């Protein structure tokens, strides 16, 4: 029965592995070699299947030994095709869109500018606590014709921040602050700074900028929360700036007018004008009303009018064409 089953050709046995199918095909078989051959082939199939997971070389050796042991030395080993290499995993490369640097920079700049613009709008927006005339302290109710837009009493920081929003002192602050910058930028280049004229040049420069500085500080800090005494100190500072302009600022004009006079008369006029200026300073520091503060400079002003008439005459010195500069504050050519 065993010989009859082995008389035919043994069907090929296909061994499947994780990598590739392997065919074991014997070339020829005989009856005397069939004894035990079928069972050994089945056993070798299971052993070969377990060994296929290790490597292709192990598969070849196992197949060769199985065929040799089951079919005899006359049969040649089956040809095992080499296992095809597993292709590497495909990496999908996505095409990146070009970076819009300009747009990102705009976004970053916009994000950086947002807090700055927010702070700027906060500074430029008038606060809601601006007061009316009736709400102000007694010493700040000197102008009954301006009824709204008063700043509340503040500290130094609050007064400085009021530069950046509109209130009823904004025009006064700006019209006194801008001339300071303009004078300091233009007047020094016009002055003769030689040794013999240096003092008079300084008198002209300081006299030109002093009243603007005093009034700028007064209008900016007039709502200080330090009380009425601080307000009157600021008012005295404003009057001091005007006095410097009327005294030291006028010395170049007085000196030019008496330049051709004799030595005793020249110094008599200069000293007389200086004494009148000192008297005006005292009246300005002790004035208790707006009219007293205005009249304190009356005598020095009257003396300057007399010196102007002297300059027009043949007795006075100085170039007559420079009177245009004296009255209109323009540079003569």
Automatic annotation (TrEMBL):
Keywords, in A-Z order: Membrane, Metal-binding, Transmembrane, Transmembrane helix, Zinc
Pfam families in the cross-refs: HlyIII
Bilayer disposition of the protein: Multi-pass membrane protein
Residue stretches of biased makeup (Pro residues): 79-90
GO MF annotations, alphabetized: metal ion binding; signaling receptor activity
Subcellular localization: Membrane
Chain positions recorded as Zn(2+) binding sites: 219
TM region(s), chain numbering: 173-193, 199-220, 265-282, 294-313
InterPro entries listed in its UniProt record: AdipoR/HlyIII-related
Transmembrane in keyword set: yes
Entry similarity comment: Belongs to the ADIPOR family.
Protein name per the record: AAEL012718-PA
